[in-house]
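Re: the 250-residue chain
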Amino acid sequence: SEHREGLTVLGYTTVEMELQKKSGEAVPVEANITWLDEEGIFQLMARDITLKKKLEESRKAYSEQLEKEVEQRTLQLRQSEAEAKRQQKTAEGIIYGSPIPMFVLDKNHRIIYWNRACEKLTGYSSQEMLGTDNHWKPFYPHKRPLLADLIIDNDIDGIYRLYKDMNLRKSTMVEGAFEAEHFFPQLGKNGTHLYFNAAPIKDDEGQIQGAIVTYQDFTERVRMTQVLTRRQAFVQYLIENSIYGIIATD
């Protein structure tokens, strides 16, 4: 109907067809058919489009192959995303379920993890801490960079300047990490002695993307040491000031 309309309205039409050679081989052609009104006949002019057809077939095959590769790549990406999400959930489970107080900062110094043990240690919930840069609040009365902040900024001078009096030392376990100890008077009812470790989080290219901090409360150990020290001092005082002779034996 399309070609008939072309002949009726325009007086010509173009169609693709196959012509057969004497050898019997079919040849694809593009035929221009024109109605010659005066002669009362159709004029047909054919052009061999074998090469055109081969190119179209090649493009079609390439397009189909490309579609398959795109589908496969999309499937792989979805599987990778699903695996990444699974690993992320596993990591979150490990962090949040760990009995060791810890939090994680991104490269913009924002809290992205604040686990339950850290909630218990500091009294600050993850709900009020996540997405903020308030990780200093449980430890200091005014805002100041924590060890993790200085590691993210790669501010080594700042690390030694601010933490030199806190028994600062490089970690022997993690490259780029630092350890320190300090008494935080505003943390807890009577203050808290903490050992803390801050380590960088790096991407595949070695660029720092954040930092993780862990804490260990050794307040009870310090208090027990102080009690023992006082007892030893008291015993020594009694020995030195006794009016009676005292003999110590093992």
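The domain at 100-227 is CATH 3.30.450.20 (Beta-Lactamase).
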